[in-house]
């Protein structure tokens, strides 16, 4: 698995400070086109903070984020989402009282054009736009395998289907990068296995790069082409799964120094 | 379990009476009432008891007033019911709409003279613009103020938003209340108000303050337009974004929905309805009086939306009609009947707010989704107690 040299996202020297706490310290990170990369680290390592910088929820105190040729560091979240950075949430945040297809159509909001007047008057263009949006939504739902629940309220779906719907909703933004925040949380090993295939299928069929934050090491190791490890806000390692598996600092960070030394003996 | 939940959800989603049926019902009721007011009431052959009954319990003026409340409540429903923004200052838009009518449809500004398609004699001083144009102007002015007030306000969340809107709901009527002499300029005529408004031109005849039957038709039409606008917007791009914001603001913004713009749109559309309601109310009472635009109107309208069913236009119509009617006619009429029956002297109308408070508490306790709930909400609010099984398994972990 060789990674493309072309970067779709390039974050350089990102620092985030919350009062006296340096949550992320001078981290540089990039995402090659159509790659599957992961961000791991023990609890409190700054993964989610970093994630929130990429999606525009936090502004970094230093550093900048480039999306292709465009700087997105200071853009508001909805702008970043609409130009092609879509995310899912660790604790599912679907629009529960909206149907699956409506959930997807909300995500298409920034790609649709009809305004107040054309919506009230139902102009032919508005109707056409709505119909196309609905078709796209159904197509994406079919793609993630929950097409039969298209007109079901999101809150009524099973847990696994809700996870799928979250991915589908993110895909409806037509993103170039898909950020998955602990997507296998709450899944059993078998479901996680299915998920690994699903991630690759999404990447190949939808032409997106995928960034994962994940705790389940078996998932991370089998799905990622490159892994970046954060610990206490700093990047301590980056490389292929094999490299990371044998990296001394990573083992220290996860298991503590004594354990890693014991292992060395 | 999943299939059962699914089936029940499908039933809740698809079974409710369709909007078409509701609309036809609305028009049918309106037609019957119009026939009664226009033909039956003036008819000499009408038996006296029926005549008295109608005049006591359902006088045309109270029905028209209720319709004005319906128009405004429909606007508030867009803000509160659709987008989930608690607005406690809605009366501001009602006032602005009312004064638009006062300014553009009376002799008030004697220093100027302008006639815009008005049916008033051209010798009259003041600004006289056609009622239908004033509706548009009032709506536009309110939309403008909606954006002006909303831009700084809507950045706040829930309780804070409610408090600041409350503030604006006090400020705007106060400006009119004290606007008799702003550097020598009389903006609002202060407490004396602006009175004698132009009649409503219809092409056939001009409707003065006492043409209840014909004005009833005008108000029914305005309310119908608001219903139409609400429903069309709800089932479109903007309506989905409002709902998404109501459901989860953060997730909505992460899905590319611009929060400020979308909230402002709901606020502005709601304000337009308030403006139209204000113009209608001004023609109904043939004047604008600053002291009528007080805080209790905002609460009153909110109670209508909650009672009827937040987010469901038909519920809101029913809620608004019932509360407005109880307030203007129901209680006084009940009081008259009661007192003359038992020879007592209980002042029923003074119990208005006691009654409304009670209604709100009972609604919150037993029927939170309102009289005619939005189908989506019915799903949530009644699944817990009715059927444990409906709860998705993972929800229980929370």
TrEMBL record, chain A:
Organism of this sequence: freshwater metagenome
Entry GO MF terms: ATP binding; ATP hydrolysis activity; L-isoleucine transmembrane transporter activity; L-phenylalanine transmembrane transporter activity; L-valine transmembrane transporter activity
GO biological process: D-alanine transmembrane transport; L-alanine transport; L-isoleucine import across plasma membrane; L-valine import across plasma membrane
Family annotation (InterPro entries): AAA+_ATPase, ABC_AA/LPS_Transport, ABC_transporter-like_ATP-bd, ABC_transporter-like_CS, BCA_ABC_TP_C, P-loop_NTPase
Alphabetical keyword list: ATP-binding, Nucleotide-binding, Transport
Coiled coil: none
Protein name: Unannotated protein
Keyword rRNA-binding assigned: no
Domain ABC transporter: 9-257
Any GO CC annotation of this UniProt entry: plasma membrane
Pfam families for the chain: ABC_tran, BCA_ABC_TP_C
SUPFAM superfamilies tied to this protein: P-loop containing nucleoside triphosphate hydrolases
Automatic annotation (TrEMBL), chain B:
Keyword set, alphabetical order: Cell membrane, Membrane, Transmembrane, Transmembrane helix
Membrane topology listed for this record: Multi-pass membrane protein
GO cellular component terms attached to this protein's record: plasma membrane
Subcellular location: Cell membrane
InterPro entries: ABC_transp_permease, LivM-like
Keyword Transmembrane part of the UniProt annotation: yes
PANTHER family per UniProt: HIGH-AFFINITY BRANCHED-CHAIN AMINO ACID TRANSPORT PROTEIN BRAE, HIGH-AFFINITY BRANCHED-CHAIN AMINO ACID TRANSPORT SYSTEM PERMEASE
Protein name (Swiss-Prot/TrEMBL): Unannotated protein
Species annotation: freshwater metagenome
């Amino acid at each position: 698995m060789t990674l493309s040299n072309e970067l779709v996202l390039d974050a350089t020297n990102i620092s985030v400070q919350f009062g006296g706490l340096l949550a992320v310290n001078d981290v540089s990170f990039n995402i090659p086109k159509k790659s599957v990369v992961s961000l791991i680290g023990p609890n409190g390592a700054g993964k989610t903070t970093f994630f929130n910088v990429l999606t525009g929820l936090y502004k970094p105190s230093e550093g900048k984020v480039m999306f292709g040729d465009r700087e997105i560091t200071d853009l508001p979240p909805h702008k970043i989402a609409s130009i092609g950075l879509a995310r899912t949430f660790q604790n599912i945040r679907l629009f529960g009282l909206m149907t699956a297809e409506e959930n997807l159509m909300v995500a298409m909001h920034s790609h649709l054009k009809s305004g107040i007047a054309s919506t009230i008057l139902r102009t032919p263009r508005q109707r056409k736009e709505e119909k196309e949006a609905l078709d796209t939504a159904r197509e994406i739902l079919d793609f993630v395998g929950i097409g039969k629940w298209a007109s079901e309220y999101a809150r009524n779906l099973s847990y696994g289907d809700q996870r799928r719907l979250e991915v589908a909703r993110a895909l409806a933004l037509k993103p170039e990068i898909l950020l998955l925040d602990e997507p296998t949380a709450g899944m059993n090993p078998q479901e996680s296995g299915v998920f690994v295939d699903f991630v690759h299928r999404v990447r190949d069929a939808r032409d997106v790069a995928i960034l994962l934050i994940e705790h389940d090491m078996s998932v991370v190791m089998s799905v990622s082409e490159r892994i970046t490890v954060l610990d206490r806000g700093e990047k301590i390692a980056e490389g292929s799964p094999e490299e990371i598996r044998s990296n001394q600092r990573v083992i220290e960070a996860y298991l503590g120094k004594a354990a890693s030394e014991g292992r060395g003996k | 379990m999943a299939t059962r939940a699914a089936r029940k959800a499908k039933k809740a989603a698809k079974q409710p009476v369709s909007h078409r049926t509701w609309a036809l019902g609305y028009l049918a009721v309106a037609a019957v009432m119009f026939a009664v007011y226009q033909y039956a009431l003036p008819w000499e052959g009408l038996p006296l008891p029926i005549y008295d009954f109608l005049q006591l319990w359902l006088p045309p003026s109270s029905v028209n007033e209720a319709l004005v409340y319906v128009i405004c409540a429909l606007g508030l429903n867009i803000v509160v019911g659709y987008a989930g923004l608690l607005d406690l200052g809605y009366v501001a838009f009602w006032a602005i709409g009312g004064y638009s009518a006062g300014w553009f449809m009376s002799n008030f500004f004697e220093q100027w003279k302008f006639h815009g398609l008005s049916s008033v004699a051209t010798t009259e001083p003041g600004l006289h613009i056609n009622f239908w144009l004033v509706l548009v102007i009032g709506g536009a002015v309110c939309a403008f103020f909606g954006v002006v007030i909303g831009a700084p306000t809507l950045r706040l969340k829930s309780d804070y938003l409610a408090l600041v809107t409350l503030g604006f709901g006090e400020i705007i009527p106060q400006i009119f209340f004290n606007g008799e002499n702003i550097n020598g300029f009389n903006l609002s005529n202060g407490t004396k108000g602006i009175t004698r408004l132009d009649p409503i031109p219809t092409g056939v005849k001009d409707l003065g303050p006492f043409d209840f039957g014909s004005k009833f038709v005008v108000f029914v039409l305005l309310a119908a337009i608001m219903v139409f606008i609400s429903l069309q917007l709800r089932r479109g791009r903007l309506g989905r974004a409002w709902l998404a914001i109501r459901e989860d603001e953060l997730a909505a913004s992460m899905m590319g929905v611009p929060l400020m713009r979308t909230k402002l749109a709901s606020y502005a559309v709601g304000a337009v309805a308030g403006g139209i309601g204000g113009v209608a109310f001004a023609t109904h009472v043939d004047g604008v009086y600053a002291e009528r635009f007080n805080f209790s109107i905002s609460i009153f309208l909110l109670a209508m939306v909650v009672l009827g069913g937040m987010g469901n236009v038909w519920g809101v119509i029913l809620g608004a009609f019932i509360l407005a009617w109880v307030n203007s006619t129901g209680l006084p009429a009940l009081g008259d009947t009661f007192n003359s029956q038992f020879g007592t002297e209980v002042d029923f109308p003074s119990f208005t707010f006691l009654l409304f408070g009670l209604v709100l508490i009972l609604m919150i306790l037993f029927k939170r989704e309102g009289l005619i709930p939005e189908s989506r909400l019915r799903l949530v609010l009644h699944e817990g107690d009715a059927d444990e099984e409906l709860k998705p398994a993972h929800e229980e972990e929370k």
